[in-house]
Write a structure and sequence with these properties.
Structural class of chain B: alpha/beta
Number of domains of chain B: 1
Number of strands of chain B: 8
Number of helices of chain A: 9
Shape of chain B: globular
Largest sheet of chain A: none
CATH class of one domain in chain A: Mainly Alpha
Radius of gyration of chain B: 15 Å
Largest sheet of chain B: 8 strands, mixed
CATH topology of one domain in chain A: 434 Repressor (Amino-terminal Domain)
Helix content of chain B: 25-40%
Helix content of chain A: 55-70%
Distance between the termini of chain B: 35 Å
Oligomer: heterodimer
Strand content of chain B: 15-25%
Order of helices and strands of chain B: HEEHHEEEEEHHE
Strand content of chain A: under 5%
Shape of chain A: elongated
């Protein structure tokens, strides 16, 4: 595993007795998961559009106004577990089957979208960029126990 | 020198930074960042919990673009409702904002160097002042802050790419793959 990835996943990979995971790392992975679910639903919707589905039909099927459907399909932050279920039913008569995958030991994908960029030339730049870029997330320290207590009390 | 050679030179010289995807994710687009955006979203330090939470989410949003996720784009200024990227007034300036909607809302101002290659110049809070950004909230759509942000984006573009225009026009395909119009 590259050094940068190890640092990013320091607390995450530390096991059940490891330190508290910094809130920003939690937020980062929350956002990734939301994006992933959203992208999955949008993919289904785009597929079913080719079979005649549109937002008006979808709204009618699940009893929601078009502007609500528009909002749900507008961005990852608008989804809840209930809306995800409604959308999957209305779009494709499907339900979500859950699976998960370890964040550890992931190799970078050696793929670039610019056709004329030789992969070998690019990949030689990768380790340096990767190490530099993950630094804010990597450098986070777990909140102290005192902080956690104060936040819990405030909540 | 082509614009691609130009931005690659700027990346090599460290004047622009190219955002990496999360390990294992695919790289289907390129997001280039000025040092200010790079420091904000990638390098940090994130001084407090609010800033860390917000900037980590912004990083995830930008990486979503890099990995080629489907994007909703609005090319008509003031008409964007759910779009994730919107073209700003005046359309001939070809300045866009990436809309990061988590609270507090943020807008990243960018232009397209070529198809699927965005250059992000500045970031501003949408409605609420945040202590960790040195820009006032953009506020009302006709505000001075919006105009200043667009002007700043153009000025920075001219500084980095004095001999090249950004992607312009009304063809979504010229800007992005895997995107639809709002």
């Amino acid at each position: 595993m590259p050094t940068s990835q190890m640092q990013l996943l320091n607390e995450i990979s530390a096991g059940h007795d490891g330190p508290q995971i910094p809130p920003a790392k939690l937020a980062y992975f929350q956002e990734r998961m939301r994006d992933r679910v959203f992208d999955f639903i949008i993919g289904l919707f785009l597929r079913e559009q080719k079979n005649g589905l549109n937002k008006a039909k979808l709204g009618r099927r699940i009893g929601k106004r078009p502007e609500v459907v528009n909002r749900w399909l507008g961005g990852p932050s608008n989804l809840t577990l209930d809306t995800i279920s409604d959308l999957l039913l209305g779009i494709a008569a499907e339900e979500l089957l859950l699976d998960s995958q370890t964040l550890l030991e992931r190799a970078p994908v050696n793929e670039f979208h610019l056709d004329d960029v030789p992969a070998s030339a690019e990949s030689s730049e990768e380790p340096e960029q990767d190490g530099e870029q993950a630094s804010a997330l990597m450098g986070l320290k777990p909140p102290s126990q005192d902080d956690s207590g104060a936040r819990a009390a405030a909540a | 020198m082509s614009i691609r050679e130009e931005w690659k030179r700027l990346v090599q010289d460290g004047q622009l930074h190219r955002l990496d995807p999360y390990p294992g994710d695919r790289r289907k687009r390129t997001v280039l960042m000025t040092p200010s955006i790079h420091n904000l979203a990638v390098v940090g330090p994130w001084d407090d919990e609010e800033m860390g939470d917000r900037c980590a989410r912004l990083l995830a949003t930008l990486q979503r673009i890099v990995r080629g996720a489907h994007l909703i784009v609005c090319l008509d200024p003031f008409e964007a409702r759910e779009a994730q990227i919107g073209r700003l007034d005046q359309v001939e300036d070809a300045v866009f904002d990436i809309r990061s909607r988590e609270e507090p809302g943020l807008r990243v101002f960018c232009r397209f160097a070529e198809k699927d290659v965005l250059v992000a110049f500045t970031c501003a809070p949408r409605s609420v002042k945040v202590s960790w950004l040195d820009m006032l909230p953009l506020g009302d759509r006709h505000s001075r802050e919006w105009k200043n942000a667009v002007r700043d984006c153009i000025e920075q573009w001219t500084m980095f790419f004095p001999k090249h225009d950004p992607v312009m026009g009304d063809d979504l395909n010229a800007y992005l793959s895997n995107a639809t119009l709002e």
